Amino acid sequence: MENGAKGCEVVVSGKLQGQRTKAMKFVDGLMIHSGDPVNHYVDTALHHVLLREGVLGIKVKIMLPWDPMGKMGPKKPLSEHVTIVEPKDEILPPPSLDRRVGIQSPNNYPQHNRVSLAAVWSLDAVL
Fold first, then answer.
1. Three-state SS across 52-72?
2. Which of 12, 30, 76, 88 has the most CB atoms within 10 Å of its CB?
């Protein structure tokens, strides 16, 4: 975590104390578990330790930070990462007095979307 990782998870499983096997999980920071960003952001390692009592399994997951250059982490930002842009002060021109706002005359409607009523009735007759 001191070297810039966003999160880490260590799972130790096996005969830790006594005869029964147990698993202990240690988690710190942020860790994603689902989706495609797991393939890019999470680095996973697994190692088995042979002891006299049995085998211990150690799994380590490290979540890498986003790196725009792509050297220390993935170039692709997280999909849920949101950047907030400051609004620009924009001066709108005053509305002209000769045009009515919000009312369109029938001549201003787009002509390519019009369907004649006869065509609709003929479709109803076919169905």
1. CCCEEEEEEEEECCCCCCCCC
2. 12
In the chain, the N- to C-terminal Cα span, in Å, equals 67
Phi-psi region of 121 (alpha: psi -120 to 50; beta: other; left: phi over 0): alpha
Nearest Cα to Cα of residue 65 among 90, 46, 40, 28: 40
pLDDT digits (tens, 9 = 90+) for 40-93: 889 999 999 999 889 999 999 999 888 878 777 787 877 777 778 888 887 777
At 93-107, the pLDDT tens digits run 776 655 555 555 555
Q: Which domains does the chain have, with CATH numbers?
A: 7-63 (3.30.1140.32)
